[in-house]
Amino acid sequence: MIILNLYNCLGTYLVIAAMLFGFGIYGLVARKTLIGMLIASELVLAASSINFMAFNRFLAPDPTVGQIFTLFIMAIAAAEAAIAVSIVVAVYRNYKSIDTEDLVDLQG
Amino acid sequence: MESVICLPAANPSLFSAEGFVGLIFLLTIGIIIFGAAVATTSRRLVRCVAGLAICFTGVAGIYYFLMSPFVAMMQMLIYVGAVSILIAFAVMMADPEDHHGTARAPVLASPLGAAVGAMLFAALTGMGLNTEWQVFDRRGGGTIKDVGVAFLTDYSMVFELVSIVLLVAIIGALVLARRGRS
To answer: Which terminus of chain A has a smaller tally of CB atoms within 10 A, N or C?
Structure first.
């Protein structure tokens, strides 16, 4: 049964990462709240991490580089999430809303 | 054209150990798909955060299948344990559930977003499956010890810079969240 050998194939991981990326872009476009967009951007970051790890496992000459890159992505993503959440809290304090349709002060 | 790289393995039967591992891998994929679908399509933000945590748990399983148990543990610690909880706190503080009628409601955003996401998925899948990937000879083992040695030798400068970035992010988050509260 070839379907039980999927975890040894590079293509499987690439398809999973592409699917997560598609979900993330859909969420970024379709979400109406800032927190929803933040969640979608985390999905995009997870997709890129899976790609790095898959190429690291199957193709790279030195299989530590991809792991280190993924760990750096995690650190940067944690910093980004902290900053984004504090911005969301500051926006909510000023506008009493985190709906992107309400944040239109600069549209004249 | 068959250019998908598969490591050589005999086709396992369903009741062997390899077949069971394959079943667990399929389950992991199911967890990821379910979590991502909940995180992007649910209407209540609390459920989105829960879906995000489920999806990240599945991604940690994927890392484990990619022979990186350390990265899988870090994924559980940082993403499931810290980032999801942080977003849950943001949901509680910003209280987005009480809607008081927005000015405009974009009707095209959801179908257009679905179309863009589907096209990106199709394009990336086609590119990933049809490219002739080049395999290089292995030099290292990729164990936890190798990762630690590389962190403290080849990548020590980046390691220090990331710690500075995290420090700046902490201070910036505190300043941003404190402003406006007399």
So the answer is: C
B35 — phi, psi (to 5°)? Answer: -65, -45
Average pLDDT, integer, range B78-89: 92
Rounded to whole angstroms, the Cα distance separating B82 from B37 reads 21
ipTM of this model?
0.90
Axis crossing angle, helix A34-58 with helix B84-94, rounded to the nearest 10: 170
Distance in angstroms (rounded) separating the CA atoms of residues B4 and A8? 10
pLDDT at B1: 40
Q: Judging by beta carbons within 10 Å of its beta carbon (0-12, 13-18, 19+), is residue B106 exposed, middle or buried?
A: middle
105-124 of B, contacting A, C-beta below 8 A: 105-106, 109-110, 112-114, 116-118, 120-121, 124
What is the C-alpha to C-alpha distance for residues B115 and A22, in angstroms, rounded to an integer? 9
Residues with Cβ < 8 Å from A89, sequence gap 6 or more? B90, B93, B94, B176, B177
Interface contact A87, partner B, CB < 8 A: yes
CA B160 to chain centre: 24
Write the residue in A38, A58, A60 that is nearest to B5 by C-beta. A58
